[in-house]
Amino acid sequence: MITFVDTVVPITAQSTQPDLALPVGTTLDRFILSEQSAFPFATGELSQLLRDIALASKIINREINRAGLIDVTGATGTDNVQGESQQKLDVIANIRFIRALKNGGEVCAIISEEEDDIILTGNPNGKYVVAIDPLDGSSNIDVNVSIGTIFSIYRRVSPVGSVPTLADLLQGGRQQVAAGYVLYGSSTILVFTTGQGVNGFTLDQSLGEYILSHTDIKQPRTGSIFSCNEGNVAEYPDKIQTYLNTCRQRRMTGRYIGSLVADFHRNLIKGGIYLYPSTRKSPGGKLRLLYECFPMAFIAEQAGGKATDGRQAILDITPTDLHQRLVLYVGSPDLIDELLTTI
């Protein structure tokens, strides 16, 4: 169940509201409206923001599905702020999401993996800020492998009507009011949480509607899948190599797609652990804290999983930079606990 409120509720807080879970087959709009109507103090701004993200994801889904027909595969020949080669669809997805969030009017500022600085939307009265990775795993585009979008939503801390500040986006993971991802794969699914559980909505292509398909998702306590780039294993810390050897000895299955959204989603549903350790090339880790690690950690905890950098829970880390990078271990709680005893 989700709660649409305009005050920040700590992620660890429990709902005192009655269970209003809707049945599988409910449209996203009806789900949002039904949940909002149960809370008379909700003003609807977060609801509209989630609709804006859903709309943009439908547009991106359309572009992905016809990518080979309209010459939007391949690289642009330029690098993004991360120093990574930009794909044509990276640019398209970035433009589409920024445009949807600006036009929606609920967001005053955005940070994106594809942009160096804070993006001001021209809506100083907007109450929310958004951190987004518009197209995760874009190196998979040309070979038709699953990719995704990751987003995180905060209520601004600067005065409404003023110019947003860096502090609005460096609040910390436990101040998220919502987070989610869209997986563009064999089907397109939107998974999100507002701090009261995790629900998934599958896009019905014939209707152009997201339909509730996964209610109150719970990650299995353990699993038989480990996900990491084994091509880099020689560069991983010795204790991580030891842990991975243990996984192999136990006949666990190695599965790695190279798209955080896809790897995370599989392990969320089936049970498993995702590892992106430090390497010699990236001793501090490679994944971005604000728009990759924080939202995935929020979703994992809400589904009963865990997320850590090996020293503390991801959501307890204090951010210091918009594009801060981090080590990430996330997945089934028993597997994370076992990892922590190893490292």
TrEMBL record:
Residues in domain Fructose-1-6-bisphosphatase class I N-terminal? 27-214
Required co-factor(s) are: Mg(2+)
| Binding residue positions for Mg(2+) 1 | 113, 133, 135
Pathway where it operates: Carbohydrate biosynthesis; Calvin cycle
The organism's superkingdom is given as Bacteria
- What CDD domains does UniProt report for this protein, alphabetically? FBPase
What protein is this chain from?
Fructose-1,6-bisphosphatase class 1
Entry binding sites for substrate: 136-139, 229, 256, 274-276, 286
Q: Which family does it belong to?
A: Belongs to the FBPase class 1 family.
This protein's GO cellular component annotations are: cytosol
- Which reaction equation describes what this protein catalyses? beta-D-fructose 1,6-bisphosphate + H2O = beta-D-fructose 6-phosphate + phosphate
User: Could you cite one Gene Ontology molecular function of this protein?
Assistant: fructose 1,6-bisphosphate 1-phosphatase activity
Assembly, in brief, is: Homotetramer.
UniProt record, GO biological process: fructose 1,6-bisphosphate metabolic process; fructose 6-phosphate metabolic process; fructose metabolic process; gluconeogenesis; sucrose biosynthetic process
Q: Which InterPro entries match?
A: FBPase_C_dom, FBPase_class-1, FBPase_N, FBPtase, Fructose_bisphosphatase_AS
Q: Which UniProt keywords apply?
A: Carbohydrate metabolism, Cytoplasm, Hydrolase, Magnesium, Metal-binding
